[in-house]
Amino acid sequence: MSQTLERGERTGAGENPVKRQQILAGAQKVFVTMGFDAASMDDVTRAAGVSKSTLYVYFRSKEELFTALIAEERERYFAEVSAIFTDPGHPAETLKIYGTRLATKLSSKEVIRAQRTVMSVVERMPELGASFYESGPKRTIGLLSAYLDSAVAAGTLRIEDTELAAKQFIELASAGMLRCRLFGYKTESPAEEEIERTVNGAVRLFMAGYGVPA
């Protein structure tokens, strides 16, 4: 085997991770600057500094590019969140940590921009909206629901429908913040104090309804 192959510098078509990241970085710049609808694959090739033939080896459409951008960020987020759900014996403390992380993420510039992008195209591209929901909100609900199941099994929560309870907590933890950001009523992410106050209230309400009396 040649030195080049041993170093992993030669890869098959569409398999070079450095080139892939170069394309994604260019796509992100274009989508942020121009918006998803106005952007074209030609714009991405110019921003990424690659040929159109190279671009299409990696991504067949700007929808695939957008999905890949979202997926990369989500994998990092879910890896972080999964590490939070390790203690079913103390749900109040766990939910406070998780709620703070969730509210901060949902109201961030990047997530708000992604949600607006999906909302702007979902009527003519419902499959993109469905994919966005499946890999994001639905996965979030499933992850939290699994933790609530473990807390129920540990005897620290009493919940008949953990999926419904997960949806309720997500709404409580972002109450009054997400929609203000989404519709541009507030142009900046909420302050730490607002997030803390909102999440503390969410945990109190949740534990009042589903907690086990001491």
Concise account of the structure shown:
This protein has 214 residues and is mainly α.
Strand content: under 5%
CATH class of the largest domain: Mainly Alpha
Poorly predicted sequence stretches spanning 5 or more consecutive residues: 1-12
Note the gap between the termini. 66 Å
Helix content range of the residues, please?
Answer: over 70%
**Basic shape:** elongated
Going by CATH, the homologous superfamily of the largest domain would be: Tetracycline Repressor, domain 2
State mean pLDDT (0 to 100 scale).
89
Main β-sheet description: none
Q: Indicate the structural class.
A: mainly alpha
Radius of gyration: 21 Å
**Tally of domains:** 2
As for the CATH topology of the largest domain, it is Tetracycline Repressor, domain 2
Number of helices: 12
Number of strands: 0
SSE pattern:
HHHHHHHHHHHH
State the CATH architecture of the largest domain.
Orthogonal Bundle
Give an overview in words.
Residues 17-77 form the HTH tetR-type domain. This protein is an all-alpha fold and 214 residues long. The chain folds into two domains: 1-60, Homeodomain-like (Arc Repressor Mutant, subunit A, Orthogonal Bundle); 63-210, Orthogonal Bundle (Tetracycline Repressor, domain 2). It contains twelve helices and no strands. The protein has helices at residues 3-6, 17-34, 41-48, 52-58, 62-82, 91-106, 109-121, 126-135, 137-154, 162-173, 178-182, 192-210. The longest helix has 21 residues, at 62-82. The radius of gyration is 21 Å and the shape is elongated. The termini are far apart. 26% of the residues are buried. Mean pLDDT is 89; it is low at 1-12.
